[in-house]
Backbone:
């Protein structure tokens, strides 16, 4: 709700990374629902599963983006300094 409020008030870009795709989509849906409750649905310029673009009260465009973050380490990049010297 904080991110949606900031976007409605100021022309900002806010990017949110969440643990999974489902959580990411749910966060953006909650922000969209919050904007609809405030009866500001006419200010929405674009809405899809990753972006929510709205016109702020300043008249500038705000962009809310929500992405799933995947925390992993590639197997090929896991080696020690000793292994690099012996290649």
Residues:
């Amino acid at each position: 709700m904080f991110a949606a409020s900031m976007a409605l008030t100021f022309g900002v870009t806010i990017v949110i990374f969440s643990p999974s795709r489902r959580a990411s989509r749910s966060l953006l849906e909650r922000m969209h629902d919050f904007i609809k409750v405030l009866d500001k649905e006419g200010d929405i310029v674009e809405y899809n599963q990753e972006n929510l673009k709205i016109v702020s009260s300043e008249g500038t465009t705000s962009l809310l983006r929500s992405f799933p973050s995947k925390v992993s380490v590639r197997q090929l990049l896991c080696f020690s300094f000793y292994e690099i010297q012996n290649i």
